[in-house]
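DM from R.C. (forwarded with permission)

"hey, sorry to bug you on a friday — could you get me a structure for this? deadline for the figure draft is monday and I only need the backbone to look sensible"
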Amino acid sequence: MNWLADHYIEVFGALTGIIYVILEIRQSIWLWPLGLITSALYVWVFFTNKFYADMGLQSYYVLISIYGWYWWLRGGEKYNTDSLPVTRISLKLAGILVFVFILLFAGIWYILLNYTDSPVPLGDAFTTALSIVATWMLARKIIEHWILWVIADLVSMGLYIYKGLYPTVILFAVYTLMAVIGYREWRKTMGQNQETGNFF
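My reply, with the result:
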């Protein structure tokens, strides 16, 4: 009970995070407001454990939740449908996002290495940069974002084991499994729609 009293924010954040991914798999727009709650909780968890890049990532999640909420509500107009459809990434957009990832990774790694006491600057920078790109892709319903989540979640599990954040390790193990399920479920909903995601 003492452990739970000391880690209740982390545990609650883990539970809301699992619900978030369930809503994501089901393509429910309610994932975005729930994401705001989860992100607010994890700002505190990561700050107290010196995962500064992950803490900053939660602030980004607040902004991208607003962006994603808008696109899931209004993005279907571009495709003449009631809701934003699941699409595949275009080769051009993939190239842009790889470039963005490299810039983010290098920049975050440099900052963590030189201006913070982060115990794992390389891993923290990698997962943060990958998560930023994956969440933007989620906001646009690009199916390949699930693949990025599998990679980010597996690396994150190693980092959180190192820091002893065991409820979060369990959360990210569940995330990894659910990302695989999510990819399969989203493929089913694509149907005959073979559109590719575009930047604009």
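R.C.: lifesaver. The chain has one domain: 2-197.
me: no worries. The chain is about 75% helix and 0% strand.
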